[in-house]
Write a structure and sequence with these properties.
The protein is 81% helix and 0% strand. It has 30 helices and no strands. It has 706 residues and is an all-alpha fold. The radius of gyration is 29 Å and the shape is globular. α25 packs across α27 and α26 packs antiparallel against α27.
Length: 706
């Protein structure tokens, strides 16, 4: 079948599908309206049906407190684990705080120099200096210690499990659903059961971080070992190597880049829950952000949030460079466009280049005796490595000198003379925005009118409609009908059971509140993201311009997005919704762009050959054929918005997120917080399964021009 005929066939199928869908939707709406008219007096989910899960959790909490010092489970298992983790954390933290600040800066900078080159080392040192310059040195060290212990435990558990899974298919199959659950459940869901067993402190924060960050290192260790060339393994077996020798000398060395990538992902996931872990006493930078947001010290929250971003960038660059995936001498791109026209950026580039030449020259000078020694001993390879990378020799010589100076030094605290703070100007900006941008004159333009409009005409009506107006059986039946239409009887039963579960947990009203906020955030993200994705697909220049902005929104920790949003909109539901939109925007834009670009060029050329304009080609060819990918983008948007529910609860977002935050903050609300966390999971599963089934239903058949 020709491309033009395939496209026409596909469009005809789409038209018939839209007609059938429209007719089915009309019938379904009529049925739901009839049900609502007959069941309108039922109202919200009956409280008498509620399962007393919150009370059970609170009773368990009281039992744990009463038996913490007497029961064998705590004496022989949980308390020793807690003591080992707490002792390790205190030791690492005390060592890092004992080392003088300039030794830490020098050591991290030299490590970065050896991995990323001179430019990477200079920029890394500047990033480490930022921690102390804004008065967050001790908090940064605490976060680094917590991260180090959590990642070390994850690696100690994950690599052996990954090796075991790579060598035993049965183990890999058994681990897969467990890892899927660990990776898809929101991070805060782990916190409450861990708090029940270990209390409020840094130990439960580490354990929750380990659970959340463990899957990548297990998966990528298994992948790395399974990806080793079988011919290499067979050759080692032919030489008589034992399985242990093959693993140690063949498989692990060749899988090392993949394993380091897994460690990199583990570090990034551990950093992503720093603030959420602060809710249960993790301390460090997350605690500073949390307390600052709670007291509306926006400037201080921004300083601490940027410190977390800088720490994440440093850890990401170092682990990627060690894995050989980025960076390295001569490969680091300091800026996205080296030949930028920005004079400030070019001046920084010139300074870094001069420092690069100076350090290269010094390293070459110091390295000459070692080169001569290596050549005289016949180790030509070592001499060539020193000659090619003299900065590594410089780092190797200066690092012991810095350590000796640090041990003999008495001044270990970061000097106040080089400290600075931009919290004051940011707070002044917040005040200025509140006075001048909340409402511009007597017009309806400003952040205040926009917030009021969204609240009055979108969030509140939807919340009242789902929680008070609609009878709960109508909502459940509507969910089941959607599941049956998209995925059949199985999905219908699953979706209905999850919807009823929201009521049985006693979270029906809060779930409908959260659902209303999710709808508003997803609609706003779609209204922004899909047009941006269309523009990106039609203009390579616009795609390049949007890329750094989308990269920034995708890599910055979610809670940091709240800070500038609070500056504009104060606290409440709207900042949470806006932050969710910004957090989900990259996925919506990029997947829309990808879906349109993946449409076969022959299909668009055939449409233009029939005289279609660019707009007609977009509406009638590209968007229909890209619809499965766009639905996947909407699915990702929904999941990312739900991931922000608890973060939005920190600033008064309401709904399930606020209830979960209360459960983490107050010991008498642990049970209700746990129930709210389970309700978020149920709501996420309903939306995820329905949208995935919708995307599969819209997937084009073979030969449709895709």
């Amino acid at each position: 079948m020709s491309t033009a005929a395939a496209v026409q066939t596909r469009l005809a199928i789409d038209r018939r599908h839209r007609i059938r869908s429209g007719a089915t939707l009309v019938v379904a709406l009529a049925v739901l309206v009839a049900l609502e008219l007959s069941l309108g007096a039922v109202g919200a989910f009956p409280d008498s049906w509620r399962i007393p899960l919150a009370e059970w959790i609170n009773d368990a909490r009281r039992w744990i407190i009463s038996n913490q010092t007497t029961h064998w489970l705590f004496l022989l298992v949980l308390n020793p684990i807690s003591d080992v983790i707490d002792g390790s954390l205190r030791w690492v933290e005390s060592v890092l705080l004992w080392i003088p600040w300039y030794v830490v800066v020098a050591a991290v900078g030299m490590l970065a120099t050896s991995i990323l080159g001179v430019k990477g080392g200079v920029l890394t040192s500047i990033g480490v200096l930022y921690f102390g310059s804004v008065g967050l040195w001790e908090d940064s060290i605490q976060t680094l210690a917590l991260m180090g212990v959590a990642v070390a435990i994850s690696v100690a558990i994950g690599i052996p499990l990954g090796i075991w899974g790579a060598r035993r298919d049965r183990v890999e199959r058994a681990l897969r659903p467990l890892l899927d659950a660990m990776q898809t459940l929101p991070a805060f869901v782990y916190l409450i059961p861990v708090v029940l067993l270990f209390g409020i402190a840094r130990v439960p924060a580490i354990i929750a971080t380990v659970i959340y960050a463990l899957p990548p290192v297990i998966r990528l260790t298994t992948l790395g070992i399974r990806s080793v060339n079988p011919a290499t393994v067979e050759a080692a077996e032919m030489f008589g190597a034992t399985p242990r020798q093959i693993l140690r000398k063949v498989q692990l060395p060749q899988a090392l880049p993949t394993i380091l990538t897994g460690i990199n992902q583990t570090i990034m996931m551990a950093l992503s829950i720093v603030v959420i872990a602060a809710l249960i006493g993790a301390g460090g930078l997350g605690q500073v952000v949390l307390e600052s947001l709670r007291r509306l010290f926006v400037g201080r929250a921004l300083e601490a949030g940027l410190a977390i971003v800088v720490l994440a960038i440093i850890m990401d660059r170092l682990t990627h460079g060690a894995a050989g995936l980025g960076g390295g001498k001569g490969r680091l791109r300091v800026f996205s466009d080296r030949h930028t026209a920005n004079p400030f950026v070019r001046s920084i580039e010139r300074v870094v280049d001069r420092i690069d030449r100076l350090i290269q020259g010094a390293g070459t000078f110091i390295g000459y005796p070692f080169v001569a020694l290596l050549r005289s001993s016949g180790r030509v390879g070592g001499a060539k490595q020193v000659a090619d990378h003299p900065h590594r020799m410089l780092a190797g010589v200066l690092l012991p000198v810095a350590l000796v100076l640090g041990v003999t030094s008495t001044g270990r605290e970061f000097p106040a003379s080089i400290a600075f703070s931009f919290a004051g100007p940011v707070d002044s900006l917040v005040d200025w925005v509140g006075k001048n941008l909340y409402q511009i004159g007597d017009t309806w333009i400003g952040t205040g009118p926009f917030s009021d409009f969204v609240t009055i005409y979108a969030v509140t009506p939807l919340r009242e409609f789902f929680s008070a107006t609609l009878a709960w059986p109508v909502v459940v039946i509507a969910v089941m009908m959607a599941g049956w239409w998209f995925g059949g009887v199985g999905l219908s039963a699953f979706s209905g059971a999850c919807a009823v579960g929201l009521g049985l947990l006693g979270m029906w009203t809060l779930s409908m509140d959260t659902f209303a906020q999710v709808i508003v955030a997803v609609v706003l993200a779609i209204l922004l993201g899909i047009p941006l994705g269309v523009l990106s697909s039609r203009s390579n220049r616009f795609e390049r311009m949007a890329k750094p902005v989308l990269d920034f929104l995708q890599t910055i920790p979610s809670f940091v997005i709240l800070v500038p949003v609070i500056i504009m909109f104060n606290v409440g539901r709207i900042p949470g919704i806006i932050a969710s939109v910004l957090y989900a925007l990259p996925a919506t834009t990029r997947l829309t762009n990808l879906g349109i670009r993946r449409v076969s060029s022959e299909a668009t050329e055939a449409a233009r050959a029939f005289g279609a304009t660019r707009g007609q080609t977009l509406r009638k060819i590209q968007l229909p054929l890209a619809m499965p990918t766009i639905i996947a983008a909407i699915n990702q948007t929904v999941m990312l918005v739900l991931a922000m529910v608890v973060i939005a609860g920190l600033v008064g977002g309401g709904g399930l997120g606020l209830e979960t935050v209360r459960g983490l903050r107050r010991s008498d609300s642990v049970g209700s917080g746990f129930a709210a966390g389970l309700a978020i999971v149920l709501l996420a599963m309903i939306l995820d399964r329905l949208l995935q089934a919708w995307a599969r239903r819209l997937s084009p058949p073979a030969g449709s021009g895709r």
